[in-house]
Amino acid sequence: MIRKVMSRALPSEGKGVRVFYGEFINVDYVFGYIGRLIHGESGLQNIYILENEFWGRMLFINNNLQFTSRDEFVYHEALVHIPMQSVPDGKIKKVLICGGGDYGAAREVLKYSCVEEVIIVDIDPRVPKLVEEYFPELLPENPKDPRLHLITEDAYVLVDQYVKEGKTFDLIIVDSTDPDIGESENIQELSHALFGIDFHQKLLKICPEGVIVQQCGTPFTMKNILIGVHRIYRSVYPENQIYIYRANVPSFGSDNAYIMRCPFEYPQIPKGKVIINTLYYDFAVHGSSFVLPKFWRVELGL
Amino acid sequence: MIRKVMSRALPSEGKGVRVFYGEFINVDYVFGYIGRLIHGESGLQNIYILENEFWGRMLFINNNLQFTSRDEFVYHEALVHIPMQSVPDGKIKKVLICGGGDYGAAREVLKYSCVEEVIIVDIDPRVPKLVEEYFPELLPENPKDPRLHLITEDAYVLVDQYVKEGKTFDLIIVDSTDPDIGESENIQELSHALFGIDFHQKLLKICPEGVIVQQCGTPFTMKNILIGVHRIYRSVYPENQIYIYRANVPSFGSDNAYIMRCPFEYPQIPKGKVIINTLYYDFAVHGSSFVLPKFWRVELGL
Asked: Contact B287/A282, CB-based, under 8 Å?
């Protein structure tokens, strides 16, 4: 059951310092990793890369784990294939990924031949650079796929520009860090604006008839990101087009939540002809992802 | 989404020593808890109770977390309600719980009025005593329920005796510690024998037409308990009566696995009339629990 680490990158033996790295999940609950810190730098965001025997390589932004070599496939497949397969086959041609500078979501989207254009807009230019160097397994099968465009910009600003230009998309994926889960209530993550109501009002304008999916962290251990985003979705999108689903990303601990605006009927039933080269996702997983534990539904008022 | 700790026990402020408690999930992957160690003793097994703001109270056996006040309901509801609801309503009258001295499984089983007799057989008499003192929320609604019998004995020995006596059950729940996940391959947990082929051969004799369910740990982070037990089930029970399901118990990290021998058709479809007083389980959760991630199925050869 323990899946082998699939990093195609060279091992970096002897590189970096050996540390016990602690990631605070809550005030008195910590995930600890023994490993080598092979990259670390401050800047727009604090980025650290740890090499650990169990998880492979791990990328942290502001001390929050973003992904590991070993299980990123679960997070990215759930983020992408569920919206892709929720709509009639071939419907999704133009895709915008807000955040997602790690290429993982783009890698999955580009597996579909119906997709004509994928734009990644990430505020931090170091994320794609570091992934190219340390996590080549996250790159698309063809890293120079002509359909893929990487833009270094605040997604909020670019979306605003697209509203003015009248550019539209069939699928928008908000694949950002979790908002505001630092030690202090006053620390705003760069992703803060992507969780606001005005951002979604703009997304609706550039994706009036498409799917808009957003990752919402792990509800059990985090502040109420899912509850907050659910409230925003309900105030921007029609109630009957809103769906919540989940996936267990082992390195995140408890189940990760995703929220989706899907204007097509019965997204719980996958509609694609084929699923391409997945490790986590298949049509059975698709439907079961929408089933939430009773206590989630109670908390969400569903 | 963050569920309030529901312990009805009194807070033990000032009791015990304040520690940073580390639970090794793997060689270089650790769950760390800051809290007060309010009870600790060696003996048959090393038992520690930690009080932590996030998780409430946590019971460790041989440094492996068994349950927390905050999320034990997920583990126990999945362990009990899925087998209970997999069979025609009212079929389960006599229940044997091997291990389960924490009362959690018995609490759920006793919610069904069709159940006439529940026997808990646990090797360590301290577990029920400590639960009575520190985790009263795990006790059955009526702690003196006349249907409940607690026997302090090695489950293997008692099962052997029942084979000789010809006593039979409608449901057997193997609710033990994980086998042999200590630092050394040579350390055998007390639960070791409950994961062997001869134990299951005996269970089949005392439960020839009933359901036999066993918890199998978290496949992603543990040694291949699930793969091993699956092999044993296939050699003892008919292949078409074996089912695997899962539940995300947040404090365990990745999904927990359960394996079930169920001689009744379509256990994925719940058959009970009502579900009584649950926080995690409902009929939608029932069916989705049987859907496994693709990489689990690949590893299991399913």
From this structure: no
CATH of the domain at B49: 2.30.140.10
A18-62 pLDDT, tens per residue? Answer: 999 999 998 899 999 999 999 999 888 999 999 999 999 999 998
**What residues make up the domain containing A245?**
72-300
Whether residues A97 and A195 share a domain: the answer is yes
pTM for the whole structure: 0.94
Residues 6+ apart with CB under 8 A from B165: none
Domain total of chain B: 2
Find the CB nearest A1 among B34, B227, B285: B227
- Here the tokens at position B220 are 């992603």
* A156 touches B: beta carbon within 8 Å: no
Chain A 16-55, residues with CB within 8 Å of chain B CB atoms: 22, 25-35, 52-55
B257 and B200: one domain? yes
Identity of residue B293: P
Measured between CA atoms, the residue of chain B closest to residue A2 is B220
A53-92 pLDDT per residue, tens: 999 999 999 889 999 999 999 999 999 999 999 999 999 9
Asked whether residue A7 is domain-assigned, the answer is no
Inside any domain, residue B215: yes
- Which region, left, alpha or beta, applies to residue B288 given φ > 0 means left and ψ of -120 to 50 means alpha? alpha
Phi, psi of B243 (to 5 degrees): -135, 145
Residue B11 is assigned to a structural domain of this protein: no
Instruction: Name the range with the highest mean pLDDT among A1-15, B12-26, B145-159, B268-282.
Output: B145-159
Q: Are A250 and B254 in contact (CB under 8 A)?
A: yes
